[in-house]
Amino acid sequence: MSEDKKDLGDKAEDAFDNAKKKAKDYAEDAKESAKDFTEDAKEAAEDFSENAKRAASDFKEETKRTFDATNPDAGKNVAIIAHITIIGWIVALVMNGQNRTEIGSFYIRQVLGIGILGLVVSWIPLINLIGWILVVVLWVMSLIGAINGTEKPIFLLGTQFQEWFKSL
Predict the structure, then answer these.
(1) Of 66, 85, 115, at which residue does a domain stop?
(2) Does the global pTM surpass 0.85?
(3) Which residue, 44, 66, 88, sits at the end of a domain?
(4) 6-57 pLDDT tens trace
(5) What is the dihedral of CA 63, 67, 72, 78, to 10 degrees?
(6) 99 in helix, strand or coil?
(7) 97, 86 Cβ separation under 8 angstroms
(8) Which domain holds residue 11?
């Protein structure tokens, strides 16, 4: 019986040694797999970084071309932006201050006049609704002119707006 116990102990020891060996092999395989994964992830991150840098550079160049004073559409862009809320008007005013264009200045003055007209009309109780409809129609007409890139003053007060706000 002691020999059976000895054989059983030897078998257990051999099984333990085999398990240790297999565990070591699996650990080495896991290390290699992790190393490969790390290298792949590093390559993917570098590719992403390069693509992001290229996209940012392209965006920068496109922005420069769009808002360059020598670009005929630069003033058109300022004119359209001026029609988008008061914040858009302020942004257009700043942009036009950096690269002054005639069409940009024209629509900045026109939108300012339309905005002031809207405020004045809103304070007159009897013509409030009709006045606001008129203001919206003038704004749309002005926006269409800006999109087309033509300096077309709005009817009634367009030329006066250009004269009154000529310092802009």
Answers:
(1) 66
(2) no
(3) 66
(4) 676 777 777 777 878 888 888 888 888 888 888 888 888 888 889 988 988 8
(5) 120
(6) coil
(7) no
(8) 1-66
